Structure formats: structure tokens, C-alpha cells
């Protein structure tokens, strides 16, 4: 397969994050000739759009997918897994889904109801979430490193924390109406030291995917293990 025929890797971030979180991984993919684009969900990163919910986030991603005139490997991190499940359900150019320590909901499932039905597990994320009276939640910056960046470079962690933004609480309870993994080949990337989504919860969801990969790292493999993460995405893109 020539470089011009390779799928485009589209990257969808998780809650509280933005397209910025993928920059180190994108640099790795660039060196391998694998093109990628990172999306800011509405209200996140540098997006000037208002915050939405799960379905409006997915609709935003769907509009991006429709503009890309080549096959797509669609990657969702954490909450982004629910977004890509919904977004790709109406797409015709998505050839592979990648769930990076992410949620894999079926039709009628939302993130909070899914989590409630999984085995009890404690992580560092729960105590770090601060709920506001405006329907948004934020991350306590003093607890963010333990929840998200346990294996990341100490120099990168303050910059990552500074870019975190609020997240609409409604996005966690809303159910998807489409689940693209039922019809599109998929890969789940397990992260064994994740303190945001417990490994037992990852394993509960990974069985829904066609393939499973494992990285011995934290919730942010795009930052803590960019080379190994790029290896997986390159193999998928080259198919």
C-alpha cells in the first residue's frame, strides 16, 4: 500500500481534554508517514462552539468524517470511545475503530450506567472530579496527575493539567443510539496502570472488540508511551 493510499487516523480525545493531548503521538505518526488529524470536541481545546452532550459531540465528529475523502482509522480515548461508537455508526469511510482505554457502549448504553453495571473498582479519578452547579464538572489540578498522567514525563504533566477544561456532566449519562463496533473491525488498547478506567472495566469492554492490545502504562498512552502507541496505530493503518 502506497503512502497516498493509507487511511487517515482521526483522533478523538476524552473528557476534560482536547486535540492538544495527541500532539506527541501525532509527531510519532508523522515520522512513519501515517497522516493524522485530531479533533476538538465542542467547547474543548480551542473550539469556540458551546459545550454539548454525547450525541452532539458525535454529530460533530460525523461531520468531520464526512469531509475526509479517504479511508479512516477512527481512534477514541476514554469518553471518546462512546463518541466514536455513535459517530461511525452512520459513516461509510471508517475502516477500523480503535478504543484507547475507552468506553465501548452498545445501543441504549451510556457511560455512567455502563460503569454501574461493572465490577466495583477504585481509581484515582473519582476523588479528582469536582461537580459544579452549572452542569459542568472539572478536575482538581492537585489530583489530576495521579488520575491521568502517572507514567508521563514529569516535565509534561504541568502543561497537560493547565490545558484541562470543564466537561458537561450530561455527556456521561446519555445513551448512544448507534454502536459502530457491531459492524466495523475494532481494536481495544488496554492500559494496565490506568487510574481513570480500572483495568477490570477495560477488560469488561474489550471483549466487544475484534482485537486487543496491551500497554503497561497509564490513562494517557499517547503521552507516556507514544512510540508503542504509534506502533499499534501504524500496524492498523497499514492493515
List the SSEs and their pairings:
Layout: E1 8-12, H1 23-31, E2 36-39, H2 54-67, E3 72-77, H3 80-87, E4 94-100, H4 111-116, H5 125-128, E5 129-131, E6 136-139, H6 141-148, H7 157-163, E7 167-168, H8 170-173, E8 186-191, H9 199-206, E9 211-215, H10 221-224, H11 226-238
Parallel strand pairs: 1-2, 1-3, 3-4, 4-8, 8-9
Antiparallel strand pairs: 5-6, 6-7
Helix pairs in contact: 1-11, 2-3
Order of helices and strands: EHEHEHEHHEEHHEHEHEHH
The largest sheet is: 6 strands, parallel
**What is the spatial order of strands in the main beta sheet?**
2-1-3-4-8-9
CATH fold descriptor: Rossmann fold
Nearest-integer average pLDDT: 97
Assembly type of the shown chains? single chain
CATH class: Alpha Beta
CATH superfamily: Alpha/Beta hydrolase fold, catalytic domain
How many helices? The count is: 11
Q: Kindly state the number of beta strands.
A: 9
The rounded Rg comes to: 16 Å
Précis, in short:
The chain is of the alpha/beta class and 239 residues long.
What does this 3D model show about the protein?
The chain is α/β, with parallel strands linked by helices and 239 residues long. The chain is 36% helix and 18% strand. The protein contains 11 helices and 9 strands. The protein has helices at 23-31, 54-67, 80-87, 111-116, 125-128, 141-148, 157-163, 170-173, 199-206, 221-224, 226-238; strands spanning 8-12, 36-39, 72-77, 94-100, 129-131, 136-139, 167-168, 186-191, 211-215. Helix 1 crosses helix 11 and helix 2 crosses helix 3 (80-87). The chain is globular. The N and C termini lie close together (9 Å).
